[in-house]
Amino acid sequence: MRIVVLTKPVPDPASGGEKLGPDGRLDRAAVPAVVNGNDEFALEAALKLIEAAGEGEVTLLSMAPASAPETLRKALAMGATRGVLVTDTALEGSCAVSTATVLAAALRDMEYDLVLAGVDASDGVGGTVPSAVAAHLRLPYLSYAARIEPDMAAKSVRVRRISPTGYDLLEAPLPAVIGCTQSLGEPRYPSLKGIMAARNKEIVTRSLGDVGIDPASVGGSVATTALLDSRQPAARAATEVVRGSAAEGADRIVAFLADRRII
């Protein structure tokens, strides 16, 4: 089984240092980068599928700055086989449309049975790239996966998808693209052996020319989204402590909510 996991380096959410640059874009140099959290869940799912099958390989695919290999090493340390990085200065400021176009172009030169991706990225929270990649490649897209069950003999995959009312059961032919949720299982910690092995694992770097993309067709100059305004959130109001008996507290809370109801 061959699985490609779409992986994005993002500013570390735990750093608290994210800020916008003068151009309104996220200043990625201001904080250290980490592997997008939801992509780690997708990678964990891929590794479990390979382990269950007893054979196969997991390839990371990322569109990111040239510094990304340092971040991708953690994902390789978790157990991925190799990495592919598409990087080019022309990609700076790319929107989701450009990102999906580039990733799909890179995938056309790769062999795979499944493409897994986190449902969204912590720096944009758009959640549109996996489905757009599937549309570019004209592949089935199975979203919000809580369980993935490939059948290599039948060349199909079944997914248990989270829905507002419970779960849907989806089935599609291979190859397919799957949007992965945290219900697939907690990502493993890289072992010391894995960390040492990751140093020697291959990360292939490809330019836009290598994947057949015109630099003028992607990047900030043709982005379909733009920042119009930004502002700090309002300061948190003073808290009110309710004291007294349970009945008195309940009455005070009901009155508090009633005073603030919209309808």
Q: What can you tell me about this protein's structure?
A:
The chain contains seven helices and eleven strands. With 263 residues, the chain is α/β, with parallel strands linked by helices. The strands form two sheets. A nine-stranded mixed beta sheet has the order 9-8-7-10-6-1-4-5-11, sandwiched between helices. β7 and β8 form a beta hairpin. α2 crosses α5 and α3 packs across α4. The radius of gyration is 22 Å and the shape is globular.
What are its keywords?
single chain, alpha/beta, 9-stranded mixed sheet, two-stranded antiparallel ribbon
Radius of gyration: 22 Å
Strand content: 15-25%
Low-pLDDT parts are none
Beta strands, count:
11
Morphology: globular
Strand order of the biggest β-sheet: 9-8-7-10-6-1-4-5-11
Cα(first) to Cα(last) distance is 55 Å
Encode the helix/strand succession as letters: EEEHEHEHEHEEEEHEHH
In round numbers, the mean pLDDT is 91
Report the total helices.
7
Helix-strand makeup class? alpha/beta
Largest sheet: 9 strands, mixed
Secondary structure elements and their pairing?
Elements: E1 2-6, E2 9-11, E3 33-35, H1 37-53, E4 57-63, H2 68-78, E5 82-86, H3 96-107, E6 114-118, H4 129-137, E7 141-151, E8 156-163, E9 166-173, E10 176-180, H5 192-198, E11 203-206, H6 208-211, H7 246-260
Parallel strand pairs: 1-4, 1-6, 4-5, 5-11, 6-10, 7-10
Antiparallel strand pairs: 2-3, 7-8, 8-9
Q: How would you sum up this structure in a few lines?
A:
The chain has 263 residues and is α/β, with parallel strands linked by helices. It is 29% helix and 24% strand.
